[in-house]
Amino acid sequence: MMPLDYQVYVVDDEETIREGIALALSDCYTLTTFADAESAIEKVAEAPPDLILMDIGLPGMTGMEALGRIKEIHPEVLVIMITAYEDINSVITCMKRGAYDYIIKPIHMEELENTIKNALETIRLRKEVRALQERQLTETTPCFIGESNAIHDVMAFISMVAKSPDTPVLILGETGTGKELIASTIHYRSPNFQGPFVTVNCAAIHKELIESELFGYEKGAFSGASTSGKTGLIEAAEGGTLFLDEVGDMGLDTQAKLLRFLEEGEFYKVGSTQKRKVQTRIVSATNRDLDKMILEETFRKDLYFRLGVIKINVPSLNERRDDTLILANYFMHTFAEKFNKPILGMTDEAEKRLLIYSWSGNVRELRNMMERGVLTARGERLTVEDLGLEDVRRGEVMENGATGFAPLPPTGIDIQEVRVAMETFYFKEALRIAKGNESKAARLLNLNHHTFRYQRKKILPDA
Ligand SMILES: Nc1ncnc2c1ncn2[C@@H]1O[C@H](COP(=O)(O)OP(=O)(O)OP(=O)(O)O)[C@@H](O)[C@H]1O
Q: Is residue 152 part of a domain?
């Protein structure tokens, strides 16, 4: 491994000490010296070093005060306090406030070197862990693609919340918006990244079985149980992350047990009286309307609050159309490589239609569309036909992909006229797509059948 270049700041008002330390250490480290805490802190804020050697008894801001400030700005910077022998009480306070170690004046260079070596070993290990974490992150986490402001905000929030090893996170969003991808990103960015990431799809496991799957069971706990018993998924996620997908589909009994585990970190295996403790982070997700389920008493309110200490709302693809082409190109290149097809891009028309297409399955639908398109394409550019977008017709292509509305011309518009034209267009379209079936057409416009009928008579009196 290459030796790391360490940045060390020395803060002491005594010039002889600054010079003595610089003389002894400048061959091994990059040293910068300061005569007072104020100028050192200014520099720390703009360029944090790896290590600071700081006198406790500085004039102006004391070393102890400076330590507090440094720990506030950059808590990861290690600080070794330098102190006069009689000042040992201050040393104890400094150690309590986060100093890494201390040395007593007069300074013996050998002792100083050893103390520094220990500190730098701690830093080296931390850097190694971080590098390992980054590598693991790029190797194991699929890329989360998105350039829209909405996704940038989500990603910034994820980076922040991932730092905690155990705060529960609830991810809400329509199907296919990337909730599972976000859950795995949280795991690989968290301090638990080396632990397991265990996914449980609560909708896929029968309600009767989910409890034993989650908590495990003792041998002979119920008829049909394995004779050796079973370790539950919570235990399998020890030291890592347990991802409860479709948590809205969990039955009320299991919800109560999950709540107890979240509150106390303890649970019982099915058929066991022995309490078990497990440390894992719970990330959950659902595309169901939990507020409505709480009102209907099919989801516990207290569990909702406990699971959603941190809540992340993932916007649908229709709400962040800026991401459509970035994602489409990403999937196109991924599948072109996978299927070994010489695809270079998409036709302009295909791109335009992607931008106005109404996504009900979100990114998953887009991904599937691109997979099918790349697999069946004959030319170098994906066409409207390759992507199955023939029904999204030219007349529907609106100029402004972000909102779906044409820009307001400088001469203005007649809003009444536009409203009538829009309603006429969508009523006709709904009836065309629904092949004249009024109930289906009403659903496409999110109207009940009676309203649809009533309005149809007004809007399309001849149809
Ligand atoms: N921003 C993104 N970048 C790259 N791939 C994405 C992104 N969002 C979603 N995907 C991909 O789309 C597919 C669906 O995503 P995912 O399974 O995470 O959605 P979900 O919200 O958990 O869906 P559901 O609610 O149906 O379980 C996956 O293949 C995922 O890798």
A: no
In degrees, to the nearest 5, what angle opens at C-alpha 264 toward C-alphas 262 and 266? 90
Q: Among candidates 204, 164, 163, which has minimal Cα distance to 180?
A: 204
Q: How far apart are CA 398 and CA 418, in angstroms?
A: 14
Ligand 1: which of 181, 249, 365, 369 to mutate, most ligand atoms within 8 Å of CB?
A: 181
pLDDT of residue 99: 94
Does residue 292 share a domain with residue 191? yes
Domain of 421 in residue numbering reads as 415-459
For residues 304 and 205, state if they share a domain.
yes
Q: What is the distance in A from the centroid of ligand 1 to the CA of 362?
A: 8
User: 237 and 333 in one domain?
Assistant: no
Q: For the whole model, what pTM was predicted?
A: 0.62
- Report the DSSP pairing between strands 230-231 and 216-217: antiparallel
pLDDT by residue (tens digit) across 162-181?
888 899 999 999 999 999 99
Residues 12 and 97 in one domain: yes
| Model confidence at 52: pLDDT above 60 | yes
345 φ, ψ (degrees, to nearest 5): 175, -155
Q: What are phi and psi of 443, to 5 degrees?
A: -60, -40
Helices 37-46 and 63-73: angle between axes, nearest 10 degrees: 10
List pLDDT tens digits, range 304-329. Answer: 999 999 999 999 998 898 899 999 99
Measured in Å, residue 252 CA sits from the centre of ligand 1 at 27
Q: Whose CA is nearest to atom 6 of ligand 1?
A: 178
103 occurs within a structural domain: yes
- The CATH code of the domain that includes 342 is 1.10.8.60
Beta strands 101-104; 78-83: pairing state: parallel
In a domain, 151, yes or no: no
Please name the residues in contact with 333: beta carbons below 8 A apart, sequence gap of 6 or more: 343
Name which residue sits closest to atom 26 of ligand 1, judged by CA: 175
Residue 218 near residue 272 (C-beta atoms within 8 A): yes
Q: How many domains does the chain have?
A: 4
Please work out whether the CB of residue 367 comes within 6 Å of at least one atom of ligand 1: yes
Q: Cβ(179) to ligand 1 under 6 A?
A: yes
User: CA 452 → CA 226, 428, 463, distances in Å?
Assistant: 56, 12, 13
Q: Does the interface predicted TM-score (ipTM) exceed 0.90?
A: yes
